[in-house]
Fold each of these.
Amino acid sequence: MRVPLSWLREYVDLPAGESGRDVAARLVRAGLEVETVEQLGADLKGPLVVGQVLSIEELAGFKKPIRHCFVNVGDANGTGEPQEIVCGATNFAVGDKVVVVLPGAVLPGPFPIAARQTYGHTSAGMICSARELGMGDDHNGIIVLPPEYEPGTDAIELLQLVDEVLDIAVTPDRGYCLSMRGVAREAAAAYGLPLADPALLDVPPANSYGYLVKVADPVGCDRFVARTVTGVDPAAQSPLWLQRRLQKSGIRPISLTVDITNYVMLEVGQPLHAYDRSRVDGPIQVRRAAEGETLTTLDGVKRKLSAEDLLICDNSGPIGLAGVMGGASTEIVDPVTDPETGVTTGSTEIIIEAAHFEPVTIARAAKRHKLPSEASKRFERGVDPEAARAAAQRAVDLLVLIAGGTAEAGVTDIAAPHPVRTIAIHADLPDRVAGTEYGRETVTRRLQEIGATVAGADILEVTPPSWRPDLTDPYDLAEEVIRLEGYDNVPARMPMVPPGRGLTEAQRFHRRTGVVLAGAGFVEVNNYPFIGEAALDALGLDAGDARRRTVKLVNPLSDEEPSLRTSLLPGLLGALRRNIGRGNTDLAIFEMGTVFLPKAELSVAPRLPVDRRPSAEQLAELDAALPHQPRRVAVALAGERLPSGWWGKGAGASWADAVEAARTVARAAGVELTVRQAQYAPWHPGRCAELSVAGTVVGHAGELHPRVIKALHLPERTCAMEVDLDLLGADLSGRVSGPPVSGYPVATQDVALIVDAAVPAAEVETALRDGAGELLESLRLFDVFTGEQAGEGKKSLAYTLRFRATDRTLTADEATAARESAVAVAASRTGAVLRGA
Amino acid sequence: MSAPNKSYDPVEVEALKPEEVERARDEALAAFATAGTLEELKQAKVAHTGDRSALSLANREIGALPPQAKAAAGKLIGQARGAVNQALAKRQVELEAERDARVLVEEAVDVTLPYDRTPRGARHPLTTLAERIEDTFVAMGYEVASGPEVEAEWLNFDALNLHEDHPARSMQDTFFVQAPDGSADSGVVLRTQTSPVQIRTMLDREPPLYAVSPGRVYRTDELDATHTPVFRQVEAIAVDEGITFADLKGTIELLVEKLIGGGLELRWRPSYFPFTEPSAEIDLQCFVCRGESVGNPDRPCRTCSSEGWIELGGCGVVNPRVLVACGVDPQVYSGFAFGLGLERILMNRHNVADMRDMVEGDVRFTLPFGMEI
């Protein structure tokens, strides 16, 4: 809602020096979101005056028509002599009154004006268009003023070019503030000044000889006021003040009748519709549409109607989509002047409709037909049904006053009976909600200020005003009191919070995961979860891969990415590539976040009631319709993991770094990962580790498949890991028992084992540990090699075993026996043979 | 091992002459003083304090002296040996110090060499910012709650007093999830706010409830310098007996003080959210210009766009209808709730000019933030 300050002052006698910014600050504190305060004409400087065109000489020989004119600007130029001006517009004639800017003036831009030579003549100033004056976008030639103004009159004042406009974003509960009347009411309350209510008009009572209206749906339309005006002069134009107010409010002037309906809507908040009575066939009917009916709205679009649409009809069928947009067949005809005769024709008999429609009906219709209009915006948020008569009267008055029309005596007013809404509120409810003391007197006064009637003592009986359909319960009223008293005046205090439980084990684990990965040199990234087929194809997933089953969006940001991720890798690898594209070469990044896995059984989430707590079954139904959303962590590595430098050569990121990242996270969960060779997209089939905990697969790690690397334009040997944090952290209750730390000496023994190249080292290690028994303190693989010395198809694994007892110094024999036992188990399980044996 | 003293004859023995003892002592002292290296000193030590040295031999002969001569000879030789040993030790220290000074200088390295051998990591500032806010609340006694990002419409809208035709529902540009039949009627959306976590918390447990819930939320905005379709909120809710708007103000003031610093004015603007009543938008006085850029074109402020205020978020007293939908009796309990946008706080608290930097995952953006902010 754009509110010109000059217009606002008509209803509230604001202090003279009060600036738009001052008023905005007050309104903001009362809860109106004033987004900007526009300074109209701030850089405008005169002289800008009314001029009368005395002569026009058409200059030939130029690419466009050029006129050399003399204009009477009265004494404004200091000489009283005609002003010589060259003009490129052609929409004016000798004798017309125009707006002339004289040398020395500055137009918005700023554009300083000076006399200059052009097209072979002196141009001492300019004849102005609306756009040049910052009045709007209309650039169809220059402004031709009504004839009544004297040459030399100051046009800055006449056109009200200097003003301030408050642009207010009206929240959905404040429909009444989509009008000058509503904003003025708030301003009056904010300043403690009286309001001159523009809807307080003398309106003749309804009678039986108004235009015939039949309302078949009194729920959809609970009020219909119709008035008729005849003898409207089609040549009559909107006066400047009316045009200017519309322009400042962001509405383009069209024709007098339409301008008047728009003006009254802005003023009172009641959307009006004007019909050309000569084009309406019989009585007006309000009903729902029949399936298959169509209506051509006045934007020229033929619309298929739905049975839910509420219509305004005549004998010919639909003539308007109620509360949204009128029909083309009955709209006011644009005035046309016959150039020969000078006679202007257009609509002369007008029906004014001021109706009240049910908000939800209008909201749905506007949504269904994608037709948000000034009218629907207001009806959706609630229009004052009691303002309909006054609004119609105001339009009639303006048509009579400006267009020379005659108001017919008939007044149609169909009103469905409205129960009076009263709300009982404990006088101390605002105190209890705010946590301060207002007292009954203040509460009563504030409620009266918003237009409510208040009766009673400890329990107040409050009848909210007709323009506040949002006020339905005591808390709504409490809010009004608190806001008008000022939020700034509510004291601040702290609630007494009972002792808390701190972070849960899972929350601590999630934090730890981030900390250990960052400590290990990984940088956290956050990616959007949107993916498409292309991303899944690039990962080389089989047609039947479970990760191809995705949650899809109805309205994705991009049609290429309609799904939610089933793996963190597409986003993470995208971030990796983005970094590489920006010249960051050695990268280790990680992401923690949810993936979205559709359930096996798909269902729809029910729409449950809100007037009570849903049952456990109903809540289970809601959750059943949601996908699984496990939390995962993934890493991606490329380039050097350990940089080369003056200390020596570094090391490129490898599959082992990816596996180690998983182990790092597992340690943060306090669990040991079991690693197994596996083949799983998008990893290299020979360099993929399946990671599990107690038999449950929790993720994969390794080097990416060369095809995936190629498809995603990643560096060779790019590595990645992805594990499920919910599975890893499934049991965080375990406590570490402090190990006995033996003070006896350690006995160290090395073994080198030859095994088949295909035997996983992890199996050999497990066997050694199992065989070594309790004396084994630690075991470490210190060398792996293949080649001639190991034998064809074999590899050598060399381990250091450290033995220690807690109660004695081990003898060499004891340590050797333990080692031999370890080797024996490894031999029987994996075929390991002692090297050199 | 020293060889036996063949010339030993107890009868013929007589005391060493004092001048000989003195000479032996002086020779030793001179030899130590002239030893230029530890090796030379070692040789001098053997020569003058070893078993075959004059003083050692003399010492050994004391035992053979007649009793009346023993004391005087012992004293004489003991003093001489003491002086010799002292001089040796002193010279030893001197020569070691000389050696150390030389060798350690030779071993010197350039300790200013860079050693960026261990790759550096960092956590995303939005993560650590959320944790800082969580910690502030946990310290007050709150718990940290979370909920799913793909959420039932009932929880995201209806239970929060946003019924299907509510104008506010179309204000929020919602991503809808496809139903099994491909239609939009799945009843499931990407949550547009963290507020459904409030509902889940209330459905989950009886009051008193004090919870803070950070999380990702979604709106169909295009990514630009100040908008992102996927962003983060932190929401807090308190439901207890006698909770008021005053409690809300106190809590937020404390949070702002902990998070941004004290001494800044807060502006409470009445606003509208269906799930709170009364509702407010909270603005924080711009901590860069402190409002001095307003209407002052000579001193424009980038942080607040010369408006003097920075929007922090929305808040209010929980609408009793929301309590009812969760089975909480509004006659007994009341609550407050508020939500803050983390991206905006990060932009303001850490001078981040472009929201895209938080989204694109460029490591150069994240690294300086380290492990905590």
Amino acid sequence: MIQAAVYTLLFYLFGGATIALALVTVLNRRMLRAVMGLMGVLAMSACFYIMLSAEFLAGVQILVYVGGIVVLMVFAIMLTQTVDVLVEVPHWSRRALAGAAALALLLAVAGLGAGVPLEAPAGAGIPEDNTVAIGKALMDYGPRGYVLPFEIISLLLLAAAIGGIVVARKTAPEDQPLTSGGDLADEGLLQTAHTQRDEEAWVPES
Amino acid sequence: MQTLIPTLLSACVSAGWTVQTNADRATAALAASNTWGAAWSILVSLLVVALLVTLLGLGLIYLERKIAALFQSRLGPMRVGPYGLLQTVMDTIKLLLKEDIVPDKADKVLHLLAPAIALTTPVVVLGLLPYGPLAQLADVNIGILFISAISGFGVLGVLLGGWSSNNKWSLIGAMRAGAQIISYELSATLALLVVVMFAGTLSLSGIVESQAEGWWVWRAPLVGLVAFLIHLIASTAEINRLPFDIPEGESELAAGFHTEYSGMRFSFFFLAEFVNMFTVAALTTTLFLGGWMPFHVGEWARFNEVMDHIPPLVWFSFKTGFIVFVIMWVRWTFPRLRVDQLMHFEWKFLLPVGFANLVAASVVALGNWYFYPVA
Amino acid sequence: MAHVESSDVKETRMRVAGIEVPVSIVPRLAKEGYRGRFSTGLRGLLSGMRLTLGYFFGPVITQQYPENRKTLKFPERYRAILKLKFVPMKEAITSWDFKRRDEGLPKVDAHTLRTWLRGYEEVKYHKCTGCGNCEKACPNGSIKVITRYGEITEDRELDRFIWRMDSCMFCNACVQACPHDALEMGPEFENAVYDRRLLIYNLNTQAGAAARFVVEEEAEMRRKMMAPREVCGGPIPLNGHYLPRVEPLQVVPLLDGPAPENAVAEVAL
């Protein structure tokens, strides 16, 4: 009984924190503070996952979302912004419209969600070790397995990685070496655009 | 506590280590509606973490200075207290009394948040480490994954610190740190995946218990050693220590991302670095050197019994201390890697080797080719 | 690792910027393979670590001063103060003081005496002839040799050897320049004072001829040839300039009359 009380207390705590941080995310005029709010929301989601006994998902949530995606957003913001660029304050009518839209969305989701039964479907228990269960499900090529989406996602990631490399690769302009020397120059990793002039430069006259 | 030693000794004799953590005790107490017992367990855990952070801060900083001095043929702090033992205490008091200077145009909230994140990260990990069979505070069953995730959290502390200082050079330091940490995170994770494969579980106490026949560093032929080295190198890079401390760059960027911090906030970063060092060393010990598991060699029962007489906490401290010493040794031996050399090392050497090692380790794990095969 | 043989080097002539120049063409060193570089790198890392471990367990070279003050040992070449080399003679300071009492002059107290003679309790004779080589050799004019005409030897004699520790850089040029081996640099480094004027030393305790001219005479003649001088004396400008806001010290004539009111003897040390 005390356990249930503690769980309820924690739920409201995390829930309240999630709402507050989400409000910070959407309402704060400074980008990085908004991103920090987003980080908080994602971390709170991880806490909810732990409360629902999906620990693996919680760990992966923090690892991927907070440690990867939020860091990516922080990098993007830092590389493209100056410190004190504040978003302009919108006119009150636009704010009122936005508030009304948000309220409508909230009511719609609440109304739709109220009709959804919240009990777990029959036969779906929480596996004892959900890491092992998730791993087995990912490799399962039976009818309830997820190996096909897994492989497709890996292909997608491969394409994304290759695309990133292609987009970010530097090509040397004519007559210019790619790096200014240093210890990589001697290893043949220096990509220079070879021109006819280079070939003729030091031919000794004999 | 009075029952600890006899319990340990009886556990030695029966050769079965039963792990019980404080979190278990708290959960059991809650289930039995014993709120005071649960609260007591939680309070003890928090106090132990706080005490550990304090002791680590004071002790490790003093040790770093002394060991650095001995490597340089000098003495280190000797004046404040006998053999300089009170030096860190005085330094702490000094830092606490210093004025907290926040630059005018800096982002106040982020300026405060950055050291908080930087310190929280390793302190959380401290609560998860297995110090002994009865001396673990919490054992999450996704232990390693959680620790990886929390370490990834730490990048944000560095990035925000550099950004919120409103200082070009801090920002450069922060960007380099961010790039470095997220790169070396990969290699570190690959190395610890090797151990997860061997042990068959993500939880830290499970990994330690799986090394009852021998530590993974020698028990898995060659792949364990390679994984250990990769993890050590990558972790040294994760915590921004020489030879990977370009972000702090003491002779390059003033103080890198924590240039604009003074007083209490700087002491957070400073403390975070040393607690991080301990955490990384403890993690390496847990994964590869057996954590609190004594030096057992498979079926040599008499040898194992002899080894069991040394308490697990001593084993853990000794191993972690050794790794901390190696980290400091490396710091005072090698020059700093330039940032492009750093990236080259990670992406073109460490990561391919890590992948190859992972593949080889999976073969070893499948074929059960350990020195003392897993039953 | 590959190396270049001298037979691989080609000597030709080449036309560079319109001029014919002789040129040696050296072939490029073959790049070491990946495995070679890896093993060299690894061996380098490990040998570096072994080196530092050797230093870790090796002796510590720090000396804990001032606890080890009684056992301090310095290398021969350590330079911290300039001294005139003294030929020890057995003239006791007390006989000089008794003489002053006999003549009715006020007795100088023991502290002042010690101050004036700065540890040189025995009257010592110097080897300096006043040639001034050291003064010329000093790069920043920290030495001034004041000479006088000695009636007995009928030649130039050293009156005061002024050495300024506040500008001396301990380069040893004066020691090397002295043709009479009269100077040396010692390791006595505890020379900190609270008054800058006290850094202007008078290195000789006696004014007079060099020791080799004095030792042959008998005691009475010796006393006539030499006159005592105080430590830290003489208003000597640095390179011809006076120090701003630092009053020159008054020279206190010891045996030639009563001391003036603001004499050096009043300065506490």
